[in-house]
Amino acid sequence: MIDEKAIEEHIRGILVALGDDPEREGLKDTPNRVARMYSEVFAGMNYTNHEIAEMFNRTFDVEMDGLDRQGEDEVNAIPGRVVVMKDIEFFSYCEHHMALMYDMKANVAYIPRDRVIGLSKIARVCDMVGRRLQLQEKIGKDIADILAEITKSEDIAVTIEGYHSCVTARGIKKNHTKTFTAELRGRFRTDANLQFYLK
User: Fold this and answer.
1) For the segment 115-136, what is each residue's pLDDT rounded down to a tens digit?
2) DSSP-H helix ranges across the chain
3) Most distant pair of Cα atoms in the chain: their distance
């Protein structure tokens, strides 16, 4: 679990190292505020991918939801049906500089098998995975791993685009540079028609 007291102590030390006075009016409560903020924005670090999958494992039987199963192929997936959620907004923090990754949007798609996941749960998975020290490439992999565990589908795609403040606000300082990553699995890797849904 996140240790807020330890974070407070370290933030106080950072303020001193920066040459400021942690006892001055504007900074007196900063260590505590930062510790509480870190508990919120890094909440995903408290859970493994498996635990997140269990947390949001709310699925519905395909037949119960009135989706006909005629014409299934040999891998028991539903032909002609793709579930896509686009432009899921979330944020994360780069593990290299602890810098904000912002204006991030994920497109998540899968081909249902026996069960479908509640749509809000897809967005919640993205949000919780983002609340870790992360690389953007790893975020897509983690989201796909969690959805695969919940839905049992092998056909999953996660594309993410966003800005990294470690690129826009420091170093090279390229303000309009956006990073795009794609995690394509199963038929999304080989079928250009399925990849169309992610555009």
Assistant:
1) 899 999 999 999 999 999 999 9
2) 4-17, 30-41, 49-55, 119-130, 136-151, 165-168, 187-190, 192-195
3) 71
Q: Are strands 83-94 and 133-134 parallel, antiparallel or unpaired?
A: parallel
Under 8 Å between Cβ of 129 and 146: yes
| Nearest-angstrom CA–CA distance, 196 and 199 | 6
Number of CB atoms found within 10 A of residue 154's CB: 15
| Residue 30 to residue 194: CA distance in whole angstroms | 48
Residues 169, 174, 175, 178, CA torsion sign: negative
What is each CA distance from 191 to 53, 78, 127, 144, 159, in whole angstroms? Answer: 27, 15, 28, 18, 15
Q: Give the C-alpha separation, 44 to 93, whole Å.
A: 11
